[in-house]
Amino acid sequence: MLSTSFLQINYKFMRYLFILFSLLSIHLSAQKAKHNVKPKLVVGVVLDQMRPDYLIRFNKKFSQKGFNRLLKNGNECVNAFINYLPSYTGPGHTCIYTGSVPSLHGIASNDWFDRNTGKSVYCTQDNDAKNVGGTLKSGKMSPKNLWATTITDELRLASNFKSKVIAISVKDRASILPGGHTANASYWMDDSNGVFMTSDFYMKSLPSWVSDFNTINYASKLMNQNWNPLLPINNYIESTSDDNKYEGKFAGEYAPTFPHNTSNLKLSDIKKTPFGNEILTLFAKEVLKNEKLGQGDETDFLAISYSSTDYVGHQFGPNSIEIEDTYLRMDQEIEKLLSYLDAQVGEGNYTLFLTADHAVAHNPQFLMDNKIPAGYFFGKVLKDTLNKFLLTKFQHPKMVNEIGENFIWLNDSLLKNATYKKEEIIAEILNFCKQKEEIQFAVDMNNIDKAMLPSIIKEMAINGFVAKRSGDILLLLNPAWLDAYAKTGTTHGTWNPYDTHIPLIWFGAGIQKGKTMQQVYMTDIAATLATLLHIQMPNACIGKTIEEVLK
Questions:
Q1: 172 located within any domain
Q2: Does residue 271 sit within a domain?
Q3: Are residues 257 and 382 in the same domain?
Q4: Which domain holds residue 468?
Q5: In the prediction, which pLDDT does 30 show?
Q6: CA end-to-end span of the chain, whole Å?
Q7: Euclidean distance between CA atoms 183 and 298, whole angstroms
Q8: Which of 491, 477, 418 is nearest to 88 (CA)?
Q9: Structure confidence at residue 28 (pLDDT)
Q10: Which of 34, 142, 144, 501 has its CA 20 to 30 A from that of 382?
Q11: Which of 479, 512, 539 is the last residue in one of the domains?
């Protein structure tokens, strides 16, 4: 028989194990319950054309309540990249919200040519739509060209359409594409008069609060302030001198320097100033308040895209005092937005992510002046010379319809009646392009498997190719060569890291503080949101959940 002392020890041990397992069970249940709690609101913030190095370069001048609050208390994915080309606004916003790539979601670029009509098509163009507010031309917009669902669509479907989704931007495409097919509203600015509007795809008339906001005429009030630097001009030591040859000028200016008398500009130029971002924050606050986002039983979604960062970047370039000043002001807008979300929804009740639709290149002349190889490529010049060459070869004029956004488009309607095969014409174009110093690769997209390309670039090209909407021949320029429309300012659109390395910060409910060092992709954003919200991924999503950012 067992001794009494042994039974007592065994009893105490079993009792200890019971308490231990009970506590563990309670802990796991609490963790599971915590994990299953969805945020009341998701806020997607896209800064058009933002380079991730801005977060480091301007950091000392940021406050502790804007970008630095996100970095300190959120999770920064420091190696986030776009995994397709071309890197433009339309595909970028679509990729963020679909978790997919152009070959699957259909938004090939900002513009493309219709194969049947030969006419140019804008990515959110809808000739059947009518304006609601604003002007007729600005209202012919909807997401009908988008083939896939967005994470915002999936949230609406998962909640039986009880979740509210609203998307806003100064740019039409930057609000329409994030909002998806089922948004309660997507609002954008009518350039001509500085008011927010939508189309009858979403509603028959503007809510009274939107009309009231437009009546205040914030655009005029902001532009009349003129654009002066936030700090003394000598403090902008992270940028080039204020007066230089790399920057574009506003109409009527003798030099691209501060102060910029915005009161003398057209109202539509507000998007080319930080005031375009400021008016969007004001509008975002009205959306949150009047639509009561984050106040219901289901998770709501507010998609905000700040576009003025892109317009300023195009005109002045990434090394300008103007872009530095724009991001110092953007830091203030982030602080305002976070503060309002804390007050309106409650700190810890919302999840926010901040990213960009693409980054941007340096001005080529700036690089050349600093002994770095670079140059300019002008599509119109190549189009003219190529058409002259093809005329002598095939006796047909204007065989090239357009060259732009990395592609050569052949004139399909002309080629239908030509005596030569399309393959012969493409072969001649490829040989012609090989002689051009600025063109590193010219690729027949219908035979890309035969192209001698690095595998990673080939994959990006395939991901970005939409057979019904993309051009026939893909042009890949040498690094730092710009497909330009001017020699001042800059642009984007390539596979190179300066265009495809983007910021990505997660913050708020359900987010694990820290840094994620592994390489992630733009397509992973929607997949991660789907996991956070316990809903289905968008129907063309190829992304993976970034597990390190979730608790």
A1: yes
A2: yes
A3: no
A4: 375-479
A5: 41
A6: 51
A7: 15
A8: 491
A9: 44
A10: 501
A11: 479
The residue type found at 458 is K
Q: Is 188 helix (H, G, I), strand (E, B) or coil?
A: strand
Are both 150 and 186 inside the same structural domain?
yes
Residue 269 DSSP one-character state = G
The residue from 479, 507, 528 where one domain ends is 479
Q: Check whether residue 304 and residue 450 sit in a common domain.
A: no
Q: Which amino acid is at 28?
A: L
Supply the pLDDT for residue 421: 86
Give the SS3 label for residue 199: strand
Whether 87 maps to a domain, the answer reads yes
CB 334 within 8 A of CB 265: no
d(CA 316, CA 318): 7
Q: DSSP assignment, residue 154?
A: H
Q: What is the pLDDT of residue 412?
A: 83
Distance between CA atoms of 4 and 135, rounded to whole angstroms?
92
Instruction: Tell me the CATH number at 60.
Output: 3.40.720.10
Q: How many other CB atoms sit within 10 Å of the CB of residue 457? A: 19
Tell me if 368 is assigned to some domain.
no
**Given this model, what pLDDT does residue 419 score?**
76
Same structural domain, 315 and 434: no
Contact 410, 472 (CB under 8 A): yes
Same-domain status, 470 and 521:
no
Residues 541 and 452 in one domain: no
Query: Is residue 29 packed enough to be buried (19+ CB in 10 Å), middle (13-18) or exposed (0-12)?
Result: exposed
Tally of domains in the chain: 2
pLDDT for 31 equals 46
Residue 77 tokens read as 């994915």
Whole-angstrom Cα distance, residue 340 to residue 331?
Answer: 14
Q: How far apart are CA 149 and CA 143, in angstroms?
A: 10
- Please say whether the beta carbons of 374 and 368 come within 8 A: yes
- Report d(CA 483, CA 489) in Å as an integer: 12
pLDDT at 6: 44
Ramachandran bin of 134, using left for φ above 0, alpha for ψ from -120 to 50, beta for the remaining angles: left
Assess contact for 526 and 177: CB atoms under 8 A.
no
Confidence (pLDDT) at 18: 52
CA distance 290 to 418: 60
Which of 4, 89, 150, 326 is the catalytic position?
Answer: 89
CA angle 353, 80, 367 (to 5 degrees): 115
- The values of phi and psi at residue 125, to 5°, are -70, 135
Residues 383, 415, single domain; the answer is yes
385 is catalytic: no
Q: Are residues 175 and 213 in the same domain?
A: yes
Kind of pairing between the strands at 195-199 and 131-132 = antiparallel
What is the rounded distance in angstroms from the CA atom of residue 456 to the CA atom of residue 212? 50
- The Cα–Cα gap between 187 and 209 comes to 13
Q: Tell me how far apart the alpha carbons of residues 402 and 523 are, in angstroms, rounded to a whole number.
A: 30
pLDDT < 50 positions in the chain: 1-2, 6-7, 9, 25-34
Contacts of the segment 411-418: beta carbons below 8 A, 24+ positions apart: 411/118, 412/115, 412/118, 413/118, 418/394
What span, in angstroms and rounded, lies between the C-alpha atoms of 538 and 94?
11
